[in-house]
Amino acid sequence: MSGWDAPLLRELGENTRRLAALSTQQPPKPTQTRIFTISNQKGGVGKTTTTVNLAAALASKGLKVLVIDLDPQGNASTALGVPHQEGVKGIYEVLTEGTPLAKVIQPSTESPNLACIPATIDLAGAEIEIVTQIDRDKWHNLLKNSLEEYLATIEVRPDYVIIDCPPSLGLLTINAFVAAREVLIPIQCEYYALEGLSQLLRNIDLIQKNLNPQLALSTILLTMYDSRTKLASQVVSDVREHFPSQTLNAVIPRNVRISEAPSFGRTVISHDPTSTGAISYMEAAVEIAFRGAQNGR
Ligand SMILES: Nc1ncnc2c1ncn2[C@@H]1O[C@H](COP(=O)(O)OP(=O)(O)OP(=O)(O)O)[C@@H](O)[C@H]1O
Ligand SMILES: [Mg+2]
Fold this sequence. Notes:
Helix content: 40-55%
Number of domains: 1
Strand content: 15-25%
Strand order of the largest sheet: 3-4-2-5-1-6-7-8
Bound molecules: adenosine-5'-triphosphate, magnesium ion
Radius of gyration: 19 Å
Distance between the termini: 49 Å
Number of strands: 8
CATH superfamily: P-loop containing nucleotide triphosphate hydrolases
CATH class: Alpha Beta
CATH topology: Rossmann fold
């Protein structure tokens, strides 16, 4: 055997073993709907990629998942194969006009267990419309109230609601923090990864104290890990040291299958289920489910 293909063969063997392990693991259904917000005001750290791939991974294991796209870029809607061009009704109408979630929910092409509330570009103006047209005491509760009403009236509740946030700490993100019970922070394994994290933690703390005492930073997921760099492993050990109980064992590698999947309107879970990227997101999803069960969530 020539030397150059040995690492590739090793990876293939390793992936086969990981897939076999995953096939025997059935993530438990949570006792009540787990509501996650995927937040980090840093741009491009993998919030949307994490939202859609965890959602698809849980759905592929038979759990019912609702994704709420709260980012005007609408990237989560794209990746889930859900139309979100101008004119489509979505989270904008929910927040600014009080349209019930049930009226704007759309099935995802990914899985019959997966649905999405799309975001259109209209959402870019929503924060200004909210502060100019809605009473101040309602600003923060718009998403929470809609979601509570939805969950109270539907027949079969989702097991997971996953909210994809924009890269800012504005009113949309605050609405997500108030509607959610758990925060998942994706952290990119890069040099500036921890910059801005203390501001994010301060904000979560402020929301806990003032607006949503139920909110917990339950999960940290390391993303875009490149095993060839020392820096990436340094970030991993720093984050594990600071957040030992929240950081998942599963780490998401930098993987081209993950980044190309959205251009097919798919997640990596359906695009290439045997890729290292898909396997890693499946492992993260299963770990989140088992940790939740352990912690009574
Ligand atoms: N593990 C990965 N391997 C390779 N590429 C990735 C990975 N995770 C994310 N990407 C790519 O990195 C870019 C940023 O990811 P993503 O859109 O998920 O970040 P984000 O935090 O949602 O960004 P924004 O702040 O703009 O909403 C995208 O092009 C995505 O395809
Ligand atoms: Mg995004």
